[in-house]
Amino acid sequence: MTSSPARRPDPVPDVPEALFADPGVEARWRGRFTAARVSVPDWARDAPDRSVYSSNATGTWEIYAWDRAADTHRRVTDRPHGTRGGAASTDGTAIWWFDDTDGDEFGVWVREPFEGGDAVPAVAGAVAGYPAGLDLGRRTVAVGWSTDDGSTLAVSEDDGSGFGEARVLYAHTEDAGIGALSRDETLLAISHAEHGDSRHPAVRVVRVADGGTVGERHDGEGPDGQGRGLDPIEFAPVEGDQRLLVGHERRGRDELLIWDLATDTETELDIGLPGDLSAGFYPDATALLVAHTRAGRTTLHRYDLATGELGDLPTAPGSVGGADVRPDGTIEYGWSSAAYPSSVRALRPDGTDTELLAPPGDWPAPSVALDDAWVDGPGGSVHALWTRPDGTTGPVPTVFMIHGGPQAADEDRWSPVRAVWVDAGFAVVHVNYRGSSGYGSAWRDAIEGRPGTTELEDIAAVHDWAVSTGLADPAACVLEGWSWGGYLTLLGLGRQPERWAVGCAGVPVADYLAAYADEMEPLRAFDRSLFGGSPTEVPERYREASPLTWVDAVRAPVLVLAGENDPRCPIRQIDNYLDALAERGREYAMVRYDAGHGSLVVAETLRHTVAEIAFARRALGLPVPA
């Protein structure tokens, strides 16, 4: 990556030690951030009492080992910037985790004994890069990495004396990733974008022995195929069963099919649910655990593959983050709602639903629920989720919290960040603009060719609704977001200056041409798919979509928060934008932190949140406790 040039010092916002004058309110909102949380555990396939999970119990997100039989927990990693990903080996003897530097997402997988010990490179010969998938078998592991040269997918095999040197099965300049190993470890499903469209990938199944192609599916072929992708999810977890579960969008939303490699036949599953679907096999491969997402909520279901019978699984209204089926049929899943904190739960075959893994310490205070609004927009009805401080009437200061992705969505889930904005006296509005996932393929892909412009049209429609209904004070509207949401914040401040009184942009794209030059290669591939080419091929589209192009029109005070080691929204292009603001005499402040695309350190997240709210309240002329 290109280093950032020497530049003038950034103004740093004055961040108060306490955000609220009321000590009770202060303790409540900080407690929501500092309360320990845990992820849904991943267990060793052949030793299911040995599990791995993530937790922020020490104040930083790290990897933990859990021996269920002994009910003992061990912190595996202890790194200043935290650790993102971990997995248990099939036999439960080792833990794998990704070793990057300072949160930059560039590194290699390492492994260490489950009971503790030194971590060593997990696959000899694997090249440092951005992770492109991992699947662990008994005798074979499949691992992928991405560099500026493209994507490489390899296997390492255990000859009885340990896993050997990485053997490359696939390499290409376009984006690719590991999908799944078959249970007998003879086949590997991969996702690839050799056709040049990483947003709508194809699926290939290759032989582990020699990399030869066994089958290929590419829904993007032909005049009717544009905008259709395939996702290899999982092989049936039964030895010798060559059925591959695949996600498809042939009818304009995320659905499921079974591809039987033994007969090269497909069966599209007519599950009968209206929203987007994802799934995984039950351990005996007779059924699927289906997650159904619609309008920001998730429901779980059991789908019988032989009879087609669909059964509802009793979970509370809200969002499910991760779910899997244990060998005894227990479903372990993560759940939360806007009002109630996240919980890792176990739904047992007898129907009882209990907390599975309770984090240490106090339970955080609940927050407020979200309401729904469907707003007429230029491309159809836009789904928004919103809330306001209890006891308020009439227009209030309102923060429009814009999600990242863009292939993501705001849902009815727990958010300490949302909760503290409400405590600070703001209504909060989330906008699932065109480009969001969960509302069908056409809605997700409507931004292609004109990214930024399309999303802002939907945000403007919801802004009009919030003002016209008396929710939002039109003179006190804050535009806020991180990643793609941070990008839309900066773009909105320049293209819709009359709407926004303040902007808070975390890890944004700010200068699209410089961002493309410096960002990780998988994101360059994503941008080419999104814009219809590279900046050399379609320069006007990138210019139109770049916040730097519109900097002359910015009037609102701007707070930018960015990581020095971010490979997704690199720091140089943010510096370019801030220099442009400074040259024009615009009011801005900058929070720089020593990590990557966001932080895994709770104290850093606290600092960012306090900085945003204090900056917004000062800009709006509202009091901020010293």
Task: Describe this protein with a few key phrases.
626 residues; alpha+beta; Rossmann fold; 8-stranded mixed beta sheet; 4-stranded antiparallel beta sheet; 10 helices; 36 strands; 35% strand; protease; hydrolase; aminopeptidase; serine-type endopeptidase activity
List the helices and strands and how they pair.
Elements: H1 23-34, E1 42-44, E2 47-55, E3 62-67, E4 72-75, E5 86-88, E6 94-100, E7 107-113, E8 120-121, E9 130-136, E10 140-147, E11 150-157, E12 167-172, E13 176-181, E14 187-192, E15 202-207, E16 213-217, E17 230-235, E18 243-248, E19 255-260, E20 265-268, E21 276-281, E22 287-294, E23 297-304, E24 310-313, E25 319-325, E26 331-336, E27 343-347, E28 353-355, E29 371-377, E30 380-387, E31 396-402, H2 416-423, E32 427-432, H3 441-445, H4 453-468, E33 472-482, H5 484-495, E34 502-506, H6 512-518, H7 521-531, H8 539-545, E35 558-563, H9 571-583, E36 588-593, H10 602-619
How many β-strands, per DSSP?
Answer: 36
For the terminal residues, how far apart are their CA atoms? Answer: 40 Å
Strand content: 25-35%
Poorly predicted residue ranges: none
So, the CATH homologous superfamily of the domain at 23-31 and 367-508 and 554-620?
A: Alpha/Beta hydrolase fold, catalytic domain
Oligomer: single chain
Spatial sequence of strands, sheet with the most strands: 29-30-32-31-33-34-35-36
Shape: globular
